[in-house]
Amino acid sequence: MKVSSLAAFCMGLSILCVPITASAEDEVPCPHPDGITFAIEPYEPINTLEPVFRAIGEQLSERLHCPVHVMITVSYSAEIEAMRSGHTDLGLFGPLGYVMAHKMAGVDAIAVLSTPTGQAGLYTASIVTRPSTGIHDLAGLRGRSFAYSDPASTSGHLLPAAALRNAGLDPDHDLAVRYAGTHTAAFEAIRNGQVDAAELNSETIADARAVGEYDPKDYVVLWQSEPIPQGPIAVAAGLSPAFRQKLLTALMSVDVSKIRLNDNGKDTVAASRLTPQTDAAYDGIRNLTPIIGVDTHRGP
Questions:
Q1: φ, ψ dihedrals at 70, nearest 5°
Q2: What does UniProt give as the signal peptide span (predicted)?
Q3: What is the number of alpha carbons within 13 Å of residue 52 lying toward its C-beta?
Q4: Which residue, among 148, 161, 182, has the nearest Cα to 78 in the 3D structure?
Q5: Interval 213-238 mean pLDDT
Q6: How far apart are CA 150 and CA 186, in angstroms?
């Protein structure tokens, strides 16, 4: 029988090496007497998100032997502030929200929602208008009304702003900009003719198509991004390494099939599972943030 190098090392030193097992993780206590808080950014309407994440919170509570309180924040920025002020312990972020929270609050990515292939879900951003506006390219947006979703949104602000900048426009001052608050609200603004153009991500398109509210002929796509990785679940800086490991183990076994993901920017599919994720996966997003006047690079 072959002896592992770790076992040989332990026997050579006449010490007992005990790996961290599931039973050992069970002994790791809840970090707060009243449990932990799991924040979710409002990327969809709250009444859609709340039942899905309440069920996930219940699963986590059972696996962690620690109450998990789910909180849908009022905005993307509110989730970042909740982490910075120590009011929440883990959160589901978009890519931009995550790199901002990593810089401001020291949070760390640990998991990401994945498709049945085991790969992180991918989605796309776009800028659209209606045929009646007569706008045919990004340059034609100068002086026109435009809806972003949230200032801390990747597909709803950062990437469209970068596209506008690359087209020679100041993304904040050369258009009449408004922040709709959510991707759904930005879609409703363009759909109802309240603005001349808007951000529209592929997940919103897929959801609207599924309920008969999106017809491609009603819109002109002026720009579309390359695929964007799903944002991560991240943990607060103050959580102990032992509890982080216990949390990661619990997350890997949670049923997330009620969450819909874009599959490479196309149709939505049920999330298959959570898989481990690292901070480095979001370096591409981090490198773009100076476009919106935010430095999210690591360091003080």
A1: -90, 135
A2: 1-24
A3: 18
A4: 182
A5: 95
A6: 9
CA distances from 204 to 15, 116, 151, 214, 292 (A): 57, 20, 17, 9, 23
pLDDT at 10 exceeding the cut of 70: no
What's the residue count for the chain?
300
- The helix (run of H) or strand (run of E) holding residue 177 is strand 176-179
Query: What's the rounded Cα separation, in Å, for the pair 42 and 45?
Result: 6
In sequence order, which residues have a C-beta less than 8 Å from that of residue 102 and are 6 or more positions away? 108, 109, 234, 279, 282, 296, 298
For 131-139, the CB contacts below 8 A with 24+ separation are 131/218, 131/219, 131/220, 133/196, 133/197, 133/220, 135/196, 135/197, 135/220, 135/222, 136/220, 136/222, 137/167, 137/222, 138/163, 138/164, 138/167, 138/169, 138/222, 138/223, 139/167, 139/168, 139/169
Structure tokens at 175: 């258009």
**If pLDDT is split at 50, 70 and 90, which confidence band does 266 have?**
low
Q: Which residues neighbour 125 within 8 Å (Cβ) at sequence distance 6 or greater?
A: 154, 155, 156, 159, 160, 199, 200, 201, 202, 224, 225, 228
Look at residues 30, 24, 113, 97 and name the one whose alpha carbon lies nearest to residue 68: 30
Residue 80: count other Cβ atoms within 10 Å of its Cβ.
26
pTM confidence score: 0.84
- Identify whether the C-beta of residue 184 lies closer than 8 Å to the C-beta of residue 45: yes
Q: What are the structure tokens assigned to 50, written together?
A: 């709340």
